[in-house]
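pipeline/complex-builder :: batch 7 item 3
reading input block
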Amino acid sequence: MHYLSLFWYYMKQYFKSRMEYRTDLLNGIFSDLIFQTTNLVFILVVFQHTAFLEGWNKNEILFIYGFFLVPYAVFGTFFNLWNFQEKYIIKGEMDRVLTRPAHNLFQVMLETMDPPSLLGAITGMVIMGYSAFDMGMEIAWYDPFIFLGLVVSAALVYGGVYTGIAAIGFFSDSKTGITPMIWNIQNYGRYPVNIYNKVIKFILTWILPFAFVGVYPASYFLKKEEFAFYLYLTPVIGIVFFFLGITIWNIGVKNYRGAGS
Amino acid sequence: MLRIEARGLTKEFKSYKSRSGLMGAFRDLFSRNYMNIKAVDAIDLAINEGEMVGYIGENGAGKSTTIKMLTGILKPSSGFLRVNGMDPHRERENFVKTIGVVFGQRSQLWWDIAVQESFTLLKKVYRVSDAHYKRHMEHVIDVLDIEDLLARPVRKLSLGQRMRCELAAALIHNPPLLFLDEPTIGLDVLVKLKIRDFLKEMNKEYGTTVLLTTHDLSDIEALCSRVIMLDEGKVIYDGELNKLKEQMGSKKAVFVDFPYPVSLEKLESVTFGLPVSWSQIHPMQYRGVFRSEDLSVSHLLEAIIPSFEVTDLSIETMSTEEVVRKIYEEGFAHV
């Protein structure tokens, strides 16, 4: 409860500081909208030219992509940890975080959160809506709730993996090239995993489970029976990887050496 | 009650020595000369409730590392540590509710928004009730004289204004123990005075214990009766500031100015029998070093005045600054 009200206060703080700079705010909103629109048009156009892939039709692939954008947007809003090492470890902001009575990861997440990323979810929903309509997908009354649950699970998968990776910053004084590498791998999770070879499929399922962000949960709506097992596993993987991420993070905090000065 | 209790507190950092040159850098890739550096080496501390203690030492002596251990940021490598009756690192989230921290080089406040907004958020983070906040912070804001700054964004404040707000921010939850790391760095004299008065006031009013690191020894002279001096990770002095001066302070000396040139022999002959040694600065000014504590300035003057006219007389004493500089340069062993 306390954390919920803190979240709310940080959120207000975020918008207050954004509104301090009027032109900047307008520019931000404008460029975010332009970005999402181009993204949308780009995806639709690209997929118009995609042929069938191993038993997946265009609409299904488009739907998976649209689904992926939603947890990705949620993740991008709350786990904006890309610059964590530089800002918090090298510049020593972590010192301040550690002297305040709330979980340090929670504080870092709230301080770095980026609500405009949430706009990506709208793009995702539009794409999903478009392809679902094209496929003539039937939607039951409880589907929105399942969708919500799957989005949260998928966002937790991302959150866990990237929290763990950001925590590497605690152990190393210099920037590591791991984040861009993982980011490249993550892109494969947007497409049906059975088009890849076995090794990649294994990695995307069990090591860096990015398939649980796109294709597995989306298969619920696409009625792909062959993924049913993975579909039910989605919340489990989400929770397991999130806790794994937090554990690595906590070990990192124990190892924190502090910046000079 | 002891606010801070440490026994054998040690922090080791593992680091490696780089070899020189490109070839050396290449060899470093394969084998590194690791070594353990003791940033803080088995120090003992005992600080009582309500004390104001100055923590001094050269750059790199281990002050910041100690503060970071005491505030729970760093985990000690070994040793016993209790602050406010808790283990700072292990119980950190609970522990930090009982301390306030100001890092002079780092800001607590949100850069883009008004000071007031930062206070509101911190009040939430520390779960301070409205009534408590009002009662306590009104006083703090009043003493620090920051009422007019509250509505201004932090980025528009001067360093001195910001620093006062930082102090207020660190005290929102009225902690019984306050850590200040270089709080007056880069501030002008007036702001420094204001901050000192404020700290004294908090200490008097709430019994706030203060541990202060600074390079400005006048801060310590004004605030702290006790100093702890650190060198290469070890405590080399812990006690009253006055005693430190007495121990280190060299002998008293006077400068005497005459309106006309005076010869050294004549001066020595009139003060013959008194424990003073003269040296000539120039023919009209002499420096006399007292060889004994028993000699008083009036005695000396009594001996000189019948024979010479004296235009000016100044007594030389060593400032704390000089005492400390001498310790840094020569080490404590010389005392």
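note: The mean pLDDT of chain B is 87.
queue -> next item
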